[in-house]
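Class, carefully examine what follows:
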Amino acid sequence: MSPMGIRLSPLGLGLFCLLGVGVIYHLQRRTVDLRDLLAVSVEAALLGGTEVKKVRDENSLNEKSKGKTKEGATELLTTGDLQSHRKMFNLISNTFPEVNSEEHDNTLDKSAAWSRKIPADILEKVEGGRDVLAESVTVWIDPLDATQEYTENLVKFVTTMVCVAVDGKPVIGVIHVPFTGFTAWAFVGQGSNMRARSSYSVSTPKAIVSRSHSGKVKSFVQDAFGNSTTIIEAGGAGYKVLALLEMPSSETNPMDQADVYIHVTFIKKWDICAGAALLSALGGHMTTLKGEDIDYSGTALNKGGLVASVGVDHKALVEKLPEWDPEKH
C-alpha cells in the first residue's frame, strides 16, 4: 500500500531550532484552519487518484514485494503507490510547511501547490475559522488502498485516502475512488457529502471482510452471528467503509452493501483513519473488537482488530463478538 503518516510538527525541520526559543514558541502556537486542511485533503486525494489511474491504464505497475504480513500475505508496492504518494505528500507538505513525514520516500516537489479552491459543497456545509493548534494534528495518507486488487485489475476496490486527527481523534476523512471519480468526505461535527442508509440488520447482518488479509475472520463472524450470515469479501478498507453507507444514485460503479465491517488481524491506521472519520461524522463507530477507541496520534499499527458500523447500537454489536486476541491469531 505504500502508505504514510504525516505528523504536523510545530518544529518543522531541525534548523528552526537555531532560530531561538521565541520563534519556537511562536511555531508551537501556530494554528491550522481545518476547513482549509479538508479542502487540501480532497485535492490531494484527487491528485493521487489521477496518478493511480494513469499507471493502471498504462499497465506500468512494476510491482514488487515489500515483504509479508504477520499472517503470511505478500504486501505489494507499485509505481501507482509511489507516484500517488509523491503527489499527495508534496501537495500537503508544501501547503503546511511544518509537516514531518514518517515515510522514507519523500521526493520533494516544490511545484506542487494547493489551488486555494474550496469545493462548493464544503463551503456550504463547513464554516471557516475552525482553527486548532498545529501540534495537535496528525495527518494520515494512504496513496493507494487495495494494492493487491490493483495489481489484479479489480479496480473498484481501489481508493486514495487522507485523514486528519486532532488529539488522536479522527476529525476529517476523505476517501476517493479513482476509477469512478467519486469522492466521499466528512468533517466531524460540521458535515459530510455522505449519509447512512435507512436501515441495517444486526441480528443477521451482512458482514464485509478482507479478501487478502482475512485471517480467520469467516469463522469469527459465523461464531458471532451464525453460520447463515452473509460474508462479503472485498479489498481495501476504504471500500469496506463506503459499503456501509448510502452511495449517490449517480455513482456508476455500485458498491457492495454491508451492515458491519469486521477485521480480525493487525491493520495500519492509514488504512482506517479516514473511514473512522466518515463513520463518526454520521453517528457511527469504528473501534477495536473489544469496543475500545483507536488513538490516531500514536504508532501506525492497530493491533486490536476492528468492528465498524453506523445506524445501529454499536455497543450491542460488540457484545455479540466472541473473545478474540489478534496478537495470538
